[in-house]
Each structure stands twice: as C-alpha cells, then as structure tokens.
Amino acid sequence: xxKKSLKPFRDIxxxxxxxxxxxxxxxxxxxxxxxxxxxxPLNDKFRGEHxxxxxxxxxxxxxxxxxxxxxxxxxxxxxxxxxKTEDGKFYPxxxxxxxxxxxxxxxxxQYCPFGAITMTKEYELADEKKSxxxxxxxxxxxxxxxxxIGERDTSKR
Amino acid sequence: xxxKNKLKINIGPQHPSTHGVLRLVLELEGEIIKSCEPVIGYLxxxxxxxxxxxxxLQYLPIVDRIDYLSGFFNSFAYCNAVENLTQIEVxxxxxxxxxxTMEMNRLSSHLLWLGTFLLDMGAxxxxxxxxxxxxxxxxxxxxxxxxxLMYNYYTxxxxxxxxxxxxxxxxxxxxxxxxxKIQDYENIITNNPIFTTRTKNIGIMSKNSALQYSITGPxxxxxxxxxxxxxxxxxxxxxxxxxxxxxxxxxxPTAQNGDSFDRYKVRVEEMxxxxxxxxxxxxxxxxxxxxxxxxIKQPLLKVxxxxxxxxxEAPRGVCSCYVxxxxxxxxxxxKWRTGSxxxxxxxxxxxxxxxxxxxxxxxxxxxVILPEVDR
Amino acid sequence: xxxxxxxxxxxxxxxxxxxFIGMTTFPLLPFCVVAVALILVVLFLVLMERKxxxxxxxxxxxxxxxxxxxxxxxxxxxKLLCKENITPTGAEKFMFNLAPLLAFVPVMxxxxxxxxxxxxxxxxxxxxxxxxMTIASIPILGxxxxxxxxxxxxxxxxxxxxxxxAISYELPLVFVLVSVVVLASxxxxxxxxxxxxxxxxxxxxxxxxAFLGFLIFFICATAELNRCPFDLPEAESELVSGYxxxxxxxxxxxxxxxxxxxxxxxxxxxxxxxxxxFLSPFGFYLSEKFINNTFWxxxxxxFEQVFWLFLKTFFxxxxxxxxxxTLPRLKSNQLMGFAWKVLLxxxxxNLFFICCYKYFIYAK
Lengths: 157, 375, 364
Ligand code: SF4
Ligand code: SF4
Description:
The structure holds 3 protein chains of 3 kinds.
Chain A: H1 2-5, H2 7-24, E1 50-52, H3 67-71, E2 78-84, E3 90-98, H4 107-111, E4 117-119, E5 134-135, H5 137-146
Antiparallel strand pairs in A: 1-4, 2-3, 3-5
Chain B: E1 7-11, E2 23-29, E3 32-39, H1 47-53, H2 56-63, H3 71-86, H4 92-121, H5 125-145, E4 154-155, E5 158-159, H6 165-189, H7 193-199, H8 207-212, H9 218-221, H10 260-287, E6 306-314, E7 317-325, E8 331-337, H11 339-351, H12 358-366, H13 370-374
Antiparallel strand pairs in B: 1-2, 2-3, 4-5, 6-7, 7-8
Helix pairs in contact in B: 2-3, 3-4, 4-5, 4-10, 4-12, 5-6, 6-10, 10-12, 11-12
Chain C: H1 2-14, H2 19-25, H3 28-56, H4 72-82, H5 93-111, H6 128-136, H7 139-149, H8 153-184, H9 189-194, H10 211-224, H11 236-239, H12 249-274, H13 286-290, H14 294-326, H15 332-362
Helix pairs in contact in C: 1-2, 3-12, 3-14, 4-12, 5-6, 5-7, 5-12, 7-8, 8-10, 8-15, 10-12, 10-15, 12-14
The complex binds iron/sulfur cluster (2 copies).
Residues 62-68, 80, 112, 114, 116-117 of chain A line the site of one iron/sulfur cluster.
C-alpha cells in the first residue's frame, strides 16, 4: 500500500533523473567528426583500394600464379593475363581488379605467396562510371607508389 | 468474422522501424492488432547455397555478412565447424582472443539494439549515446582487423594476426569508462514511467511458447529459462571455445516474466556481464603469450568427409552452423540456424490483440535483424 | 499607438501621399509585421531545435550553411519550395489542398493576440484569452482533413489520434486557464499580465500560486502541439509520418511552419499566463535605469518588454526540447488515461486551490 502510494514520487524522481542525464551532455564536447574536412586516422591494417607491390627496380613481385583469384570469394573480381618472359618467368601482362565486385575481404592479400598485392588506405572509391572502378595493372602500380604503407603485407600471413 | 471493420495495413518492407526489410501484414480493428503475418525474404542472398560453389576459404569472408552486427559469431561458428571436421588444434591464446572479440561484438550489437529500440519507442537521445559508444568498439575492431563490420579475422585454426599490447590497453580504458555510460542509459530509461508502462506486461512470452518456438538467447532467458550455450555444453558441439568460457567468471542474467521490459533488462545486464568477461580476457592475454597464427597455410583446404554442427551464443540467440563435407575442397552443404529467424516466427503470437503502438515495443525488444532471418 | 499612427501619416505626407491611404493601410501594417516576424521566428526556431537536440546528444548540429548554420532553415525552405507538389491520385483534391491552409491560417491569427508589451498588442479584446483557446483548436481540423483527404491509412490513423488527443487535452488546459483567469479577474491577456505586477520582483507571477497548474498546462500544451512525448499523430516508427505522410513541397512546409509557429505561440501564451509575460524579472526595466531621456526610455522599454517575453518563451521552448530529447513516446491508451485520469482531476484540484487562495489570501 505504502509502496503503491509512493509510486508517483518515484516516477517523478526517475523522470527528473532522466532529464538531468540528458542535460548533462550539453556540457560535453561534441563527438562529431566533420567528415570531408577531417578524417579518422586509419591504421596500417585498413583494407582499402588494392595496389600491386613494386620492388626497388620497378618490377612487379607478382608472378601471375593465380592464388589470389582462387581465394577471392567474389568470382570474377580479379582477372589476370598470364605471360612468359624469355627467361621462363611468368608475369602478369594485365591484372584487373573490379572494385564493384570486390568485397574488400583481404583474402587476396593474405594468401598471395609472394606478398605481391597489398591494400592501401584509400576508401573514397565512389565514381560516376562503373568502368572507373575497374583497376588495371597501371593503376594498381600507381596506387602502390602513392600509398605510404609500403611493405606491410609481406611479413604477414 | 467479417473483414468489414478491419483495416489491413502493410508495414514494410520500407518502413522506418522494421530494422531492415521485414514486411508485416497487419489487420487492425481500431488500434488493436487482430492478426499479423510477417513476410520475409526481401534480403535473401542465398548464403547457404553460395557455400556449395565456394571453397571453404572463399566462404569465410561471406559468413560475416549473415549478421552484419555480430560478424565474429558467424565467423566463429563456421570456423569452429571446419576446425572440428579437420581436427585442427586451436591455440589457447587465439581462443582467448576469439572470446574477447566476440564479447566486444556482443556489446556493440546490444548497444545498437538499445539505441534503435529506444528510438522506436520515441526516445531520441539514447540512440546517439549508444552509437557514440559503439563507435569506440568499432574503431577498436578496425584497428585490429582492418574493417569495422566485416572483419574476416578468424581463420581455420587460428587468427590472421596477433593483438598488440597497445590495443589491449585501449580496451582496458574502454572497459573502465563503459559502466558509467551504461548507468547513464539506465538513468534515462529504466525507471522512466512511460517506458515501464509501455513495456511491462507487453508481449509476454511464456516459457512454454518460447520453447515451442525454439527461441534462444536473451529472449529465452527473459522468460526465466537459464540456457546459454556459453555455460551449457552441447552434446554434439563440443567446440574448443567452450573450454575457455568455464575458465571465466561470469553470471548469466535472467528474468521471470518474459515481457518486453524483461528482454530489455536482460540485455542491459548482459552488457555488464560482457564488460566483466572482456576485462578477464584482457588480463589473461596480457600475462600470457602464445602462437595465434594458424598452422594451415595453404589456401585450398581439403576437409575430410563428415558433418558437424557448431553452436555459439550470438547476441540474438544461438547461432549454429552445420557443415557437411564430402571430402572435397568445397562444402557439400552448409546450414545456418540463427536466433532472429525464430524470433520473427513468434511475432504473430506475441502481437495478437496487442495495441498497434505496442508493435514497436514488442518487435523492437525481440532484437530481430533481417539479414540474419533471410540469410 | 496614436503616436505611431501620426508618425506613419507624417511619413506618407513626406512622399506626398493622401491621408486615406494611411488610414486604410495602417490597420494592416501590424499584420504584416506580425506575419514576417512569425516566419522569421519560426525559421530561427527550427534551427534552434536542431542545434539544441544536437547539443543534447553531443553533436554539432547544422553548421554548413552560413555561420553556425544560421541559414540552414532558409536553405531547407528553398528546397521545399522548389519541390514538386504531389497530390495522390486517390486524394480528395479540394480538401487535400485546403488542409494545410486550415492548419496555418489560425496560427497566424492568434499570434496577434499575445500582448508583446504594455502598449503594442495587435488585437486586444476583453476576452482574448478565450478567443486564443478557441482559435487555437482550429488547426486540428486541418489535421483531420489532411488525414481524411490524403487517402492513406497511416495518415488516417495519425489524424484519428491527433483529434482524440486534442479533445482530451483541451479540457485540462482550459481548466488551468480558468484558474489563471480567476487569479487575474480578467479574460484580457494584457490585464492578466498586468495583474502579475507585485511589489517584489517576480513574486507576483502566477507560476507561484499555480505551479501545479503550470505543470499541467505545460504537459497539455506539449500534447496540443503534438510534440514528443505526445507525438503519436506523427510517430515515425509506427505511422511513417502520420497525417502529413502524403504531403510534400509547399503544402508540407505549411504544416511544418504551422507546427513550429504554434509551438512558439503556445510557449509565449504560457509565459504570458504564468511567467509574467512582458514583465521584467527584476521588478524594474533596465532601460528605465540606464537611459535618461524619458522619450527614448519609454520606447526602449517597449522593446525590452518584447525581449523579456521572448526570453521566457525561449526558455519554455528549451524545456520542451529537453523533454523531447529524453522521453519515449506514450501509447495511445496511456495517453487518454493520463489526460482523463490524472490531468483532469489535478486541474480541478488546482482550480479549487486557486479559488481558495484567491478568496483567503490574495483578496486581502
Ligand atoms: S598477386 Fe600474388 S597471388 Fe595474385 S597472381 Fe600475383 S603472385 Fe599470385
Ligand atoms: S579483397 Fe577479397 S573480394 Fe576483393 S579482390 Fe581481394 S579476395 Fe577478392
């Protein structure tokens, strides 16, 4: 009985407490990040746009072995044109990644036996044309020289 | 029964509060719901069939997308099944990291649920608070795995890479501030008379019907049945993870009535339990070292013939993964069992003769997420 | 007023215009001033709401258009005006177009009833408090019409709820108003304000004897305005957007404008009834103290009075925003129960108490 008659008071206290808790947040610093001007710092493991690793002499590490193709969960994302040099080594004549199919899982990077492919921190990939999302071998090379990360993936696995 | 006085209303698939693309066909009499028919399948992606055309490894990144709010759990269920089929040992450290990441994921998932549930009920601020705190967890995940939701962090027999001690320190900081934040949410909402009258004795799920509809997870525990696959060992799913949970000290919160308020309460308590588990895991990881990288290096994994079901207590109920292998590099059949699917099944029963505004209080409290229902 | 009139006529004489123009246009001037002021206030109010809600949730709020996002609402308004006006095929065309106007025009009218300062109120009648309540209940017709005419189930349910809510919350509102009228012994809003003058600063405000009444009035006003936690008619988690689901472009802007203008007016009304309206909280006017020239002091007192009224109004609006940020939405049956079982008896109690107060204490 007493408990029941006290209920309105308890309700009022609870309501007041709720309002105070919300009001408290006025004095806290906003957590908004004004996106295009400021960006969250990305760490080394971030999985963004792909890049093909180029060694010091400017050669691709990739040997067109096709492992990345085989581990890629999204069929048809990676397309490789295999070629043979005179001294019997394989190299990719063309290597395309279709970003519109890619799910950025990182499997290709993880399982490449030569550490020949990596992912950069670039994530603003939207474009007007779908064809712009098809990265060919030159773009992938350029991505690598543009990226700051360097050789983070070769040691992994 | 005539349909004359009835108003047929279609909620969804595009509606602000169906948490995705659920469609509910309601029959209203005034504002009382006479019947409800959930129509699912708008987010069907063929997850199970997809497995049959992918190799074991290729399928791994995809399972994260079954329930995108708790990707680690799906990943774990699948990895665990494959590990048990291939008899790969998983090191203790990687198991601890798995438990740590999974509990954090549970926390982030519950935070999202809390925010959206309260938004459905009309309270706007808690949404922003919970998202603010969830953001911290997601940033930590991004630092660990490279992405915020689709982690692809577990591999068969271990993890992709080890955690750094910096990262563990950050988690310790997070665990320190989090109880205060949870207290804030509770201050705003738990004793609020509007909230309590809207949720207490609403959408009561009896023990019997919960068992009949095979409800699991917090929804089941809110009815008073203390079943949690973290504590109870399933006879046919002796996953290695269950060797870790008994080492940890934690309580499984339960409630009695099985109404919306109890489901809320159980989840909030579970968030606190999560924090406890997280700090224990961090302590263990700080004082012990070990190998986490999987012994399996080759991308094409051949799984011996057999079948296995692995269970894991996901935020929305038991998530189990059944894998049948015919000895090749691709699974013969993969079947998923996820908690939300069953929660949608019981929805018509709970909604019978409920008020139309109760729809949100009931549906929101069940914590249904549609990608998990449709798969 | 007289003085202003002569000023106006003089201005016309300067430009060699006949006097009858002045005679006919002068009465219209206040309405123009009022209308423009109202729209400006509403534009500011929308921005304020967004900013304040943002601060409550640790965000920054609109800050892209203009400094601190000041022109955000103007940009939004332009966007709304440029949008296509869609009338659904199944809709009752005439009523569909009538509804926004019906919701908007009364709001414009009652705005003139608020006494802004001891001299300027654009419409002053001996029963202005009653007139206010009467006209304030017309917009609900617009909402009902909108829900009926747009041939949408969500809209229909939304407008049902709006009407039910408006009817049940009008009662306690009026009973509290009666208690204030008893205190002031007048139905004229300016008289009500003037009755709150006392020897000590702000002690004569009616909020002190009628605090319970003030709370009831605040709750009922929130409900009348269909604001959270009483925003059932447009509960977006259930009804998408309630009665204005089918409205777009200009017509939606009318509803929107009416809603926010009504909010401002209700708060100003509340400030007038309980917080001493345009009276200064110090018991004297700052401009009286600091400006020596009597004429200019008189003029600036008027502006100061407007300032105090606006300050009190914005304080009340801030409270409403805090409530909106915190509370979850009520349920429809809960809503009715609350109005009839809690608020109505309490408002009777308040009236009884006020009558006793008036009889035993205040009258002496
Ligand atoms: S990127 Fe790596 S895995 Fe792919 S073809 Fe080249 S060497 Fe092979
Ligand atoms: S990131 Fe994943 S989906 Fe994208 S190309 Fe690599 S393996 Fe394929």
